[in-house]
């Protein structure tokens, strides 16, 4: 019986030491400071040249790394007006992004056609440059979408904080 207790004790000690291995730090993605969920407004200039909200509130936008996980590109997915994911070129060091003119499939009931041509300019992610509805600082995103060479929209907002007051 003493032999079994010693074997059990040795097995327990060996399992204890193997459980003490250092955990590997997984790291982040190549565009992690630009990636996230954002609450944004779509604005268009009115007759007086002032930007006004065209949707009557905020919509969700997501930015995330591509499968290549490189700092020169990311996905931008808007699920309301465009309802598509767009691959944009990024300058990670400057936290900027843009997209050359591209034809995308869209909902014809929203845009009047099943495909539109658009480009993205002036895209920026600014650290702690926004104030959330709860009054806390958050990262800001802003960019301009030109549709069919005619209409330009300003999309701007803040990174999701997860706090109920900001939802």
From TrEMBL:
Record InterPro entries: Lipid-bd_put (IPR024404), Lipid-bd_sf (IPR038668)
Key word Signal present: yes
Keywords: Signal
Keyword Aminoacyl-tRNA synthetase: no
Regions that span the bilayer: none
Pfam families assigned to the protein according to its UniProt record, in alphabetical order: Lipid_bd
Gene3D superfamilies recorded: 2.40.128.220
Signal peptide: 1-19
Protein name in the entry: Entericidin EcnA/B family protein
Species of the source: Bacteroides clarus
């Amino acid at each position: 019986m003493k032999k079994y207790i010693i074997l059990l004790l040795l097995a327990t000690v060996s399992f204890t030491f193997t459980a003490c291995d250092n955990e590997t730090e997984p790291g982040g993605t190549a565009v992690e400071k630009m990636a996230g969920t954002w609450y944004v407004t779509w604005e268009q200039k009115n007759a007086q040249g002032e930007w006004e909200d065209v949707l009557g509130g905020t919509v969700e936008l997501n930015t995330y790394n591509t499968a290549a996980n490189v700092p020169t590109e990311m996905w931008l997915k808007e699920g309301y007006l465009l309802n598509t994911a767009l691959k944009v070129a990024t300058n990670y060091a400057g936290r900027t992004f843009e997209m050359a003119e591209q034809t995308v499939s869209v909902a014809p009931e929203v845009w009047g056609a099943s495909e539109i041509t658009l480009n993205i300019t002036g895209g920026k992610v600014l650290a702690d440059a926004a104030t959330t509805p709860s009054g806390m600082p958050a990262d800001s995103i802003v960019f301009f979408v030109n549709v069919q060479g005619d209409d330009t929209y300003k999309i701007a907002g803040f990174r999701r904080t997860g706090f109920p007051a900001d939802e």
